[in-house]
Amino acid sequence: MKVLVLTAVMMVVEIVAGMAFGSMALLADGWHMGTHVAAFGITLFAYRYARKHANDPRYSFGTGKVNVLGGFASAVALAVVALVMAVESIMLMFEPRAILFNQAIIVAAVGLAVNIVSGLMLSGHHTHAHRQHQHDGSAHAHAHHHDHNLRAAYLHVIADAMTSVFAIVALLAGKYFGWVWLDPAMGLVGAAVITRWAYGLMRDSSHVLLDAAADGDVEAQIKRAVEQDADNRVVDLHVWQIGPQHYSVSLSLVTHHARPPQHYKRLLDAIPHLAHVVVETNVCRGAPCEEPVSVHQG
After folding, report:
1. Does the structure show a pLDDT above 80 at 250?
2. DSSP 215
3. What's the rounded Cα separation, in Å, for the pair 295 and 298?
4. Are the CB atoms for 125 and 7 separated by under 8 Å?
5. Strands, sheet with 233-243, edge to edge from the N-terminal-most edge strand
6. Distance (Å, rounded) from C-alpha 184 to C-alpha 28?
7. Are 191 and 85 in contact (CB under 8 A)?
8. According to CATH, where is 3.30.70.1350 located in the chain?
9. Is the pLDDT assigned to residue 136 strictly greater than 70?
10. Please, is 137 exposed, middle or buried when counting C-beta atoms within 10 Å of its C-beta (0-12, 13-18, 19+)?
11. CA distance 85 to 162
């Protein structure tokens, strides 16, 4: 939480300073920080919202898509920001304006210092979580997930530090060598980075929001687990993502030796991230199993 607040404050400072001092490199660095603040904020909001509404009957498949929906909205907004930055940078290449280099360099250096401090804070938390995980086997899943979140946050901060270094280099080159064109060029680089991030997030989040089919490997694992038991044959299978690393399954099978739906659900216990599983069992008496005579659902 401290890292989120620190990064958010520095983001605002860099964006305001970039506009005030005429530096697109500084502005790009600020907006790049904004992409990561959005990611941190959405994750934090989703955790709290999911915890608050964990038992709310209005959400049939849970609240996993809250994080995805927030990510999609942020990606659209940031894509617009990247477009505006790109247009502004191109205009500045043809009509350069005065840049207050000294002030902009100071702000960029402070931004780099903030990124270094944030990285050290996250690195310390990651080490602590890892040690706690080693001494507490009962918290394996939670600690593992927590470690991944910390690692993602740490990589975001490292990326911010790199953009701060690039901004400082561009400003120093403009001040001492007269390479003023490097500043709007860094604005274009920042816009490209933000666009790539936004596009990837829109692609992944829309896949979940539109209930697109899950990865074929997941379907293959499910089919293999069910058909290895008795003479089961899967005749209809739908697997889709309902949240980050959570899948819903609708499965229909035919068999000569019908068992309760819970039996087939237990066959899938070894496959991770299956949150909601519905099984339909069709019993047949003939060898081809073409005429199901009874149905069990659960």
Report:
1. yes
2. P
3. 10
4. no
5. 233-243, 246-255, 274-283, 294-297
6. 9
7. yes
8. 216-297
9. no
10. exposed
11. 19
Nearby residues of 102 by Cβ (< 8 Å), 6 or more positions away:
175
Q: How far apart are CA 290 and CA 292, in angstroms?
A: 6
The tokens describing 193, both together, are: 């980075």
Q: Which residues contact 15 (CB under 8 A, 6 or more apart)?
A: 27, 30, 31, 34
Please choose, from the candidates 165, 158, 210, 209, the residue with its C-alpha nearest in 3D space to the C-alpha of residue 36.
Answer: 158
Distance CA 101, CA 129 (A): 42
Q: What is the pLDDT of residues 157-171, one digit of tens each?
A: 777 787 788 889 999
Give DSSP secondary structure letters for 218-256.
Answer: HHHHHHHHHHTSTT-EEEEEEEEEEETTEEEEEEEEEES
For the domain spanning 216-297, the CATH number is: 3.30.70.1350
CB 199 within 8 A of CB 58: no
> Between the CA of residue 212 and those of 107, 206, 273, what are the distances in Å?
44, 9, 16
Q: What are phi and psi of 28, to 5 degrees?
A: -65, -40
Per the listing, tokens 């907006």 go with 31
Over the stretch 169-217, which tens digit does the pLDDT of each residue have?
999 999 999 999 999 898 898 888 888 888 888 888 888 888 888 878 8
Compute the residue count for the chain.
298
Q: Which fold has domain 2-209?
A: Alpha-lytic protease prodomain-like (1.20.1510)
Spell out the residues 6+ positions from residue 265 whose beta carbon is closer than 8 angstroms to its own: 277, 279, 298
**Three-state secondary-structure class, residue 96:** coil
Average pLDDT, the chain: 79
